[in-house]
Amino acid sequence: MQVCVRHETASGQSLWELSLEFLSQCITVRELLRERVHHEVREFNRQQDKLIFNGRNGVQRASE
Question: What's the average model confidence in pLDDT over 26-31?
Answer without folding.
Answer: 95
